[in-house]
Amino acid sequence: MPPPDPILFPPFVEPTDSGSESTSLADGAALLDFGQRWYPFGGGAAESIFVEFGLSSSEFFGRLRTLLTGPSSRGMDPAVVADMLTVCRKRLWLGE
Q: 93 in helix, strand or coil?
């Protein structure tokens, strides 16, 4: 079987310590901040998410869910994390 087309299936590249990690941390913090501000209201409008992050709602809530289930959520109120995860699951289920 021939190898997959690298344009359609780019190879996975491990993150490096070349400074991009701090950008990732900043992006994660911004996602968490937005999520905390908007979870009581259903997570925020798709338009606001796109304008702020350049992501579809599904991409945003998928990334936010990953952050909330990982070490980034340490120090957050567990009840808030649970409520934010509920919003993520709902928005992902709705496909918004």
A: helix
**End-to-end CA separation in angstroms for the chain:** 37
Predicted model pTM: 0.71
Are the beta carbons of 36 and 77 closer than 8 angstroms? no
Return the amino acid letter for 66. Answer: T
DSSP-assigned letters across all residues of 21-50: HHHHHHHHHHHHHHHHHHGGGTS--HHHHH
Helix (H, G, I), strand (E, B), or coil: what is residue 12? Answer: coil
pLDDT tens per residue across span 14-37: 444 444 334 466 688 899 999 999
Q: By three-state DSSP, how is residue 80 classified?
A: helix
| pLDDT recorded at residue 36 | 95
